[in-house]
Write a structure and sequence with these properties.
The complex is a heterodimer of chains A (419) and B (303). Chain A has 16 helices and 4 strands. Chain A is mostly helical. Classes of the chains: A mainly alpha (419), B alpha/beta (303). The structure holds adenosine-5'-diphosphate and magnesium ion (MG).
């Protein structure tokens, strides 16, 4: 008769949390939210990158127009060829013996346009329509021709007048020069904030569902006979949060890998910095919201009731996202040189220091690079303090509700009773 | 081994205006199968939850080995809650190993123990399946395995027999007996009184949160007035009533069930019977647990 089995060791709180987190992790990483979500997101990013490349390709490979000239209009061929590089297209000019020949070439598609008539009044033959750039070029060449003829008639040298005109330029003084790279900061921040909002929402939802699923299947009674409610709660938050973080990481890395080669990002370094800030705010924001969602979810006993039970918390998250616009627009204005009304600036600062709003709003502001160090540190401290508060409150609600099956429990009851 | 006793000492618990437990006391000794019986709502589940610490008592104490039970000692209790529950979509072996690890076992030992117990409970080839793919009865076997896997010192099983087919009942009974024989304290509740009578070393009868009687079935019997079946075909109706301290409880043809006051003598009753003519049967009637239960539960006025 042996009682103390040698293979059984004491279970430290840390090991209990580790075991719970490991189970959550192993279950969720094989789950639909992770696998399908990752595949869809990466596919969308790849599609975006391919589209970007295609667009850039079109812009880089400038079109070449094949233009035939006949009669005295041939005098325009040389100036058109000379002017085309500055006009954003290439031309391939050719002399056509007769207009009729040119027409049939246009009809057959071997010429894009036939220019006939005189240099001062050219007649253009095209198949279906004329490219506006080509049209503008021909019109301006014809005008120049008319102008030169008039200048000569008035006894002036067209070449001298032309060089004088060319000397005229516009001087531009930019007080706050905006580079493309600077503008990208708040935009990257905004994208990051959206990802944060989405991930906190999705994985917070997974936590809420998981809490109630354990309650609905009653497995929680067995679990709580060997671990404490706080350990169970913490293990779930850590395990599920890690899965969310990994998914966010995969998507962010794929995003950078796909998008950097397209050249859309002028400054990949800034993007990497923003991702690092985003990861920090994801961790803090997720913990804050996950605890609130788990605590409110534990008030109900059926999975169908989770979303109604967690409404106050999910509304808070939605409000945060709406406020993201309030913060992002002045941030973009600020770097693009637009005027930010001082009231809005103060509002932005204040809002982003309120803990439930901080993770999403600060990830925008920090990516825009407009946050003073003290504000950044203060926001982190405030969020950590509120996590501590929510841990205490949430663990209490969770512990008091998790074994009370049946009807929805009032929040005030869950806070008061210690059964 | 004498110190390996689970003691429930004057435990009280209220749910609002309902007094679920009122100074409930009893003990379960090492190597003992203790049957916990009582009508619905008597407080059996509440008691077990308090022992496991998933519920806090308002007053009183639960002790293990003489010391108040702690979180660490609770981890040595195998528990089968009334509301069964495991993870429906998790593999059978996978979750048994997980639960054993949560009770402090190392993974390789847990895996070996899971295989052993599944084999023993007739589920040797089902370990890889999701729990929800199993029938209700088989899920209950997995639940029992979860309670036994980590070699607990105490087993607390809330209605382990409910919903089992006769074969499963036999398996469960054999396992519980074997565990008790190995020195484990086993506390279980049940409404199947015949089974409890057969299986248990001691029985506790609870009603409205109070322990009405506790002891071996023999001890419970000795507390009730003795009854005798007497078959005296020649006796006149109502003959037993004339014997001092005797009351006829029931008459079936020529047979009479006579209850004697503890002061009355069975020899006097026999002589009175013989005086009426031939006596074909004179036998002490041993009440079943069901009969004891009924008499105890209906005798005492509700609190
Ligand atoms: N969570 C609860 N809230 C309120 N009353 C409860 C709760 N659980 C049990 N009770 C009440 O406590 C009493 C004892 O219940 P219980 O321990 O489940 O009895 P048993 O298991 O013997 O059937 C019953 O009157 C029951 O209605
Ligand atoms: Mg019960």
């Amino acid at each position: 008769m042996s009682f103390a089995s040698p293979e059984r060791a004491a279970l430290s709180p840390r090991r209990a949390v580790y075991l719970i987190a490991r189970r959550e992790f192993a279950t969720r990483i094989r789950g639909k939210v992770f696998i399908i979500g990752t595949i869809v997101a990466v596919a969308l990013l790849a599609l975006y990158a391919v589209l970007q490349l295609a667009v850039i390709d079109r812009i880089n490979t400038t079109t070449t127009f094949k233009v035939g000239f006949s009669g005295s209009a041939t005098a325009l061929a040389q100036p058109l060829e000379a002017a085309s590089p500055s006009l954003g297209f290439k031309v391939h000019v050719s002399d056509i013996a007769t207009a009729a020949q040119g027409r049939s070439a246009v009809r057959a598609g071997s010429l894009d346009a036939l220019v006939d008539g005189t240099p001062g009044a050219p007649q253009v033959v095209v198949k279906t329509g004329i490219d506006p750039a080509l049209q503008a070029a021909l019109v301006s060449l014809a005008k120049q021709n008319v102008l030169s003829a008039d200048l000569s008639a008035a006894g002036l040298s067209p070449a001298a007048v032309e060089s004088q005109i060319d000397a005229v330029s516009l001087r531009i003084d930019t007080l706050q020069p905006a580079t493309a790279a600077q503008l990208q900061g708040p935009i990257i921040g905004f994208v990051m904030a959206f990802a944060l909002y989405l991930f906190i929402g999705i994985y917070g939802g997974v936590i809420g569902q998981g809490v109630v699923a354990e309650k609905a299947s009653r497995v929680v009674e067995i679990l709580l006979s060997t671990v404490q409610p706080g350990q169970l709660l913490l293990g779930k938050v850590v395990g599920i949060g890690l899965v969310g973080l990994i998914q966010l990481g995969i998507i962010a890395v794929c995003g950078l890998l796909f998008i950097v080669p397209t050249g859309v990002l002028a400054l990949p370094g800034a993007a990497i910095g923003a991702v690092a800030i985003g990861v920090m705010w994801f961790v803090l924001g997720f913990v804050l919201y996950a605890l609130m969602l788990a605590a409110t979810a534990s008030l109900v006993s059926r999975v169908e009731e989770v979303s109604s039970a967690t409404v106050p918390v999910s509304m808070l998250l939605v409000v945060t996202w709406l406020l993201a616009y309030v913060v992002a627009i002045p941030a973009i204005d600020a770097v693009s040189g637009g005027a930010v009304s001082p009231g809005l600036g103060t509002l932005t600062t204040v809002l982003s220091l309120i803990p439930p709003f901080t993770p999403v709003l600060m990830s925008i502001r920090m990516a825009a690079g407009e946050v003073p160090l003290w504000e950044g540190l203060l926001s982190i401290v405030l969020v950590l303090a509120s996590i501590a508060g929510v841990t205490w409150l949430g663990a209490r609600i969770y512990a008091n509700s998790i074994l009370r099956f049946g009807a929805r429990i009032k929040l005030t009851d869950a806070l008061r009773r210690s059964s | 081994m004498a110190d390996r006793v689970l003691e429930i000492d004057r435990v009280s618990k209220r749910y609002g205006s309902v007094a679920a437990l009122q100074e409930l006391s009893f003990e379960v000794r090492a190597g003992e199968l203790f049957g916990f019986v009582g009508p619905n709502g008597a407080g059996k589940t509440t008691t077990m939850r308090i022992v496991l610490g998933v519920l806090a008592a308002d007053a009183g104490e639960v002790r293990w080995g003489g010391a108040p039970i702690t979180f660490a000692t609770r981890r040595r209790i195998g528990y089968m809650p009334e509301e069964r529950g495991l993870y429906p979509s998790m593999g059978v072996t996978e979750q048994l190993v997980y639960l054993a690890e949560l009770h402090g076992m190392r993974a390789p030992d847990a895996r070996a123990a899971a295989a052993r117990w599944l084999e023993r409970l007739g589920l040797g080839d089902r370990g890889g399946e999701q729990l929800q793919k199993l029938s209700q009865g088989n899920q209950q076997r997995v639940q029992l395995a979860a309670a036994l896997l980590f070699s607990p010192d105490v087993l607390v099983l809330d209605e382990p027999f409910s919903g089992l087919d006769p074969v499963a009942v036999d398996v469960m009974s054999a396992v519980l007996r074997e565990q008790a024989d190995a020195g484990i304290s086993v506390l279980f509740s049940s409404h199947q009184l015949e089974l409890v009578e057969q299986l248990c070393d001691r029985v506790g009868i609870i009603r409205a949160g109070r322990m009405l009687a506790a002891g071996s079935v023999e001890e419970l019997r000795s507390g009730s007035a003795p009854r005798y079946w007497v078959d005296a075909p020649g006796a006149a109706a109502g003959w037993a009533g004339e014997v001092a301290g005797a009351t006829a409880v029931r008459v079936e043809g020529s047979r009479t069930l006579v209850e004697l006051q503890t002061t009355a003598s069975d020899q006097v009753l026999l002589q009175a019977a013989l005086a009426t003519g031939p006596v074909r049967e004179f036998r002490r009637d041993t009440p079943t647990l069901s009969e004891l239960f009924r008499s105890v539960v209906t005798e005492e006025p509700a609190a």
